[in-house]
Amino acid sequence: MLSPDAARDKVCQLVEQARRAGADAADAVYVGERSTGLSVRLGELEDVHRSEGEEIGLRLFVGQRSASTGSSDMSADALSAMVERALAMAAQAPEDPYAGLAPKQLLANGDAPSLDLDDGQDPSSEALRERARVAEAAARGVAGVTNSNGGSASASASTMAIATSDGFAGSSKATGYSNSASVVAGEGAGMQRDYGWHSARHESDLETPEDIGRRAGERAVARLNPTRVKPGTMAVLFDPRVATSLLGHLGGAINGASIARKSSFLQDSLGQQVFAKGVSIHDDPLRPRGLRSRWFDGEGLPTRPLDLIDDGVLTTWMADSASARQLGIEPTGHAVRGASGSPSAGPSNLYLAAGSRSREEMIAGIKHGVLITELIGMGVNGVTGDYSRGASGFLIVDGEIGPPVAEITVASNLKAMFATLEPGSDLKFRRGVDSPTVLIPEMTVASA
User: Fold this and answer.
1) Mean pLDDT value across residues 322-338
2) Residues contacting residue 393 through CB under 8 Å, at least 6 positions apart
3) Residue 354 — φ and ψ, nearest 5°?
4) Other CB atoms closer than 10 Å to residue 441's CB: what's the count?
5) What is the value of pTM for the model shown?
6) CB under 8 Å to 111, separation ≥6 — which residues?
7) φ, ψ for residue 331 (rounded to 5)?
8) Residue 268: Cβ-neighbour burial (10 angstroms; 0-12, 13-18, 19+)
9) Domains of the chain
10) CA distances from 270 to 119, 141, 279 (A)
11) What mean pLDDT is reported for the chain?
12) What distance lies between CA 52 and its chain's CA centroid?
């Protein structure tokens, strides 16, 4: 894996090589990563791996024709062959009126902000094994836990660099750490499983393995002896670990490519009241130590915090340069990409802002409803917004958490869900997409 400076030099050289060979414009991406991970089960080492790899990608343009290619071979001969291959592919490609680099005048410039994404650590396999062992042991130590799917721990470091023929060159490096445990409670046909997991950019920010494991065990035991739900219309509370999926559906619906294809249920909603007043959804690429933080996007544009939903109103699409041209707008700095292929739009650190009521206050106001802690299946139509997911969780009876429920279905339409959604006050930044507990006052609930 190259250093950030060496990676930036490498992509600059490849872009220049493409220009000299006849490309009208080009950009190049380098991605390098090393990772170490292992898992234990019942206290014994089950799997260990360490990998290191790198890839470089080139996208070039000849008029309105473009082609992309990639290689894991960084030698001079391989890169020369990659340029020749891309030029030959572009000659056969159809013309695309929306093809091209990001607008030159919008490219990022100046010093990179300090996002503190790299703690410089590379823990040993022994240290990772101990972290995994402790997490699993804590989970197995919870009364009612009868078996284990194992504990795991990992550490990684990655470097990314992008250069364009219009003058942008940038690079970044980040570390990442994770720890998890998954266990089984109960016996026979009544067994239930659950997990605990956490990841962070800095090793020091990881939750303790004891807390992660204990949470996994307690979650599994709490799911024992599920009861059946009487079908009907009722309030549905989404736990934070599943409420984030609602933000994922929003992200897909306001993606510039979906809007350009006219395949979004929010097609005509820009500037409209989509959520209730008071609801705000933010995208913050500049959060220090954020799991998706970045100071430039996949096309070399600067990133900036944005209010995607402001007081319930949809304020913007998320658009890379190609979809922005189709829509007649400027790109929004949301381009994401790997080493191969063209950019597409996606969020960075996306989150639903906290509301005023606590989770306990929302539960206290529900006479009959369900708290969802797990979602199953992919029954969401991005064109119509129709929503139907398998789920499990807990009944809410007379303002209190009741017995667990399993194999239920929750259904509605995302437009109606967004319009009535209420966020709780328990927002914590733990993932790339974060949400507090979310209350949907009315959904159809049935046994699966």
Assistant:
1) 96
2) 239, 370, 371, 372, 373, 374, 404, 405, 408
3) -65, 145
4) 16
5) 0.95
6) none
7) -60, 150
8) exposed
9) 4-220 (3.30.2290.10), 226-448 (no CATH)
10) 40, 51, 16
11) 96
12) 23
